[in-house]
Design brief:
Elements (H helix, E strand, L loop, with lengths): L2 H32 L5 E8 L2 E10 L5 H12 L13 E5 L3 E4 L16 H5 L7 E4 L11 E4 L12 E7 L1 H8 L9 E3 L3 E10 L12
Antiparallel strand pairs: 1-2, 1-9, 2-7, 3-4, 3-8, 4-6, 5-6, 5-7
Amino acid sequence: MSGVLATRAQRAAQEASIHEARTSQAVRLQALRDDEGLPMVWMEVAIDGEPAGRIEAVLFARESPFAAENYRQFFSGEKGPQFHYKGAYFYRIIDRFIDQTGIHTSSSIYGSPFKDDAGGLELKHDRPYLLSIANSGPNTNTNHFSVLVAPAPHLNGHYVVFGECVSGFDVIEKVNLLARGQPGNEAHGQRAQIVDCGQTRAGDPIDTSGAVV
C-alpha cells in the first residue's frame, strides 16, 4: 500500500473511531436523561451579566446518595434561599480542568459536613462534564462542587463523583475560557454566575441515614 493510500486508510479509521465514540456517548447520555429514577437538575448561567445558556445534569443517586440528595436540594432551593445556588458564582475556574462553584455562607442540607459516598469515591474522573465534590479532605463535604472540563485521574479516590452534565457543554466551555490567559490559567471573581436553577425531576426517594460525620 502506498503512503498516500495508507494515510487515507488511517484517516478513515480515525474518523470512524471518533464517530463511534460520539455515538456511544450520545446513547449513554440519553440513557441518563431517560432514567426516571435519577434526579435531574438545571442551571441558567450568565457571563458578565449576559445570558450564556442552560446546563442540565443527572445526579448519581445510586452510587452517591448522600451527595446526590444534598446537591439536588441546593438546585431545587426547597430548603430556602440560604440553601439555593441561585446567585452563586463560579469562583474558581482553571483552564482545561474545572469550573468550581458553591455557597460560602452555607454548609450542607444536613447542617454540617457530610460523609463521602463510598460508591462515589469508586467512580473515576475519566471524562469531561462530570460533577465532583470540592472539599478540604475526607468527609468534609458541604455544597461546593466542580464541573470537570477534562479527565482528571489524579482526583480518583479522593473526591466523590456525584453526577454528569447531559447538556450545556458549550456553556461549560464558555465559563472555562475565562481562565485562559490569566495568571496561572486560573480565574477568580464574579464573572460567571448561576442566575437561576432548579429541578427537572426528583428521582426515586433517597435514603440519607448516616450521612453526617
